[in-house]
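Quick question about two entries, pasted in order.
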Amino acid sequence: MAKYKRVLLKLSGEALAGADGFGIDPVQAELVADKIRRVQDLDVEVAIVIGAGNLWRGVEGLRHGMDRATADQMGMLATVMNALALRDALERKGMTTRVQTAIEMKQIAEPYIRLRAIRHLEKGYIVVLGAGTGNPYFTTDTAGALRAIEIHADVLIKATKVDAVYDCDPVTNPDARRFETLSYMDALNMRLKVMDATAITTCMDNDLPVLVLSLWTDNNLEKAVRGERVGTLIGH
């Protein structure tokens, strides 16, 4: 029995990358698709927002004087490439999937229309939401928060390579403190960088819980949607 009936899954672009952390590895995409299928098998409606760090990091362009809006637009386009790759992997695993984009590109994907996305979810389709918010200066974390609220998701699940939120990097500091729960304000005030401030504030203002967990720990996503204690839950 699932606790959450509709979830927004926020993935980093690196989830699709190969061992070097760059590009799109079809094998990795299939592994991610398998995890999503097991969640859908619990009768959970799944929407996905994916980043683009495996293809483009705007900060590199900014270091060389690139215009911020241009760098962000390139990142938005890269998220669409990831969305298409993930859709392909999901379809090959037998899941009907729709890609919607915040920037219109009708030959490739549907434009993002909130009520259409909700209708797809109600039909049991996976919906992958690309191109961020469609605006520069906003991260895909903020896009995930916005879309989760718009489609009335029960929770925003941020699936990363770390098993929870820590007060510092657990890789470099073995004494890092692990949090099972956090308030929105603590996450903001402690500057934990689990999500950007705009994303956390958006979730706080709309009472949307955020669950941060490891994508790669076995059965983590299924445990999360069942309501079992995994990762870090951020809320009031």
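Here is the second entry:
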Amino acid sequence: MSEARTKNQRLDGTILVVDDDSTNRALLAEMLEMQGYQVVTASDGRQALAEFTRVQPSLVLSDIQMPHVNGFEVCRTLKNNPVTRLTPVVLVTGLAASEHRIRGIEAGADDFLNKPFDRSELLARVRSLLSLKAYTDELECAESVLFALARSIEGKDPYTEGHCERLSDYSARLGERIGLPEEQITALRRAGIVHDVGKVAVPDSILLKRGPLSEEEWRIIREHPVVGERICVPLKSFRLVTPIIRHHHEKRDGSGYPDGLQGEEIPLTARILQLTDVYDALTTERPYKPAFSSTEALRTMSDEVKQGWWDPHLFDEFRQLVDGKLCDELPANPAPNLVEG
């Protein structure tokens, strides 16, 4: 086996080749298999989507003009699914018209190859896209580790079940309600899960303490947003998440931590997570209190808005969200017992 083939095999690339012309399928498959790639083929768009589900390829090379489901629709289907949208799709076509290229771009295609294609160009693009896919897979793995770490902190106490998921859901709904762009809503979903990941540095003796905390214990607790930011900041995909982690304990009047920010200095997404965190804490049971009803929780939060703690305009939006029972779709669960700090 050649050195080039060995190197390509280390990319662990399974490629799905889609073309209704059996000659083209065989030619593409032969070129790729000679380089050490695993190749799966499909003769039309319907079969391609079925094969994709079966083998989960790292790359799709698809002809455009095919019966039943064309290449544009194959591409659009994969790119509209959050689970599959990061898989590169290359549209292979003999169509030179710019309108077809524009349609491909609108469908989410990552690259194009024109027939008859050049072997060297084909292999270069395949290598490049598979390397990119490997990189995004590493990022997804790193994110999964962070989510697992956050849930392990939540899982230290049986009262914590569901807290992260509720915050993720509440925050995203409020973000959608006020018209935030999709990338910020995604950041809110992620932050709901990992907002307290910095508590990994807080000893269990403090984190799970039933009685009042000492001043020194409070000092340690108040460091967790900075620790959480430090853990997550190496991930560039978390660039919109880290400000939420750092500032979700700030208060509008400047009495929060870690930076004592005031008013609009606090990032909007952090202000959103604040409200959902407080609401969830109030409406779930704690060892030291029963769960508040939604009405009681909102009344308490309204008093805190008057004290200058929370954003009054966001609170009005959140109250309407709760009053509309959108937040009540999730079942009530026992509350977290971790120190809220």
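Reply: The chain has two domains: 3-137, 155-329. Residues 1-11, 326-341 have pLDDT under 50 and may be disordered. Hope that helps.
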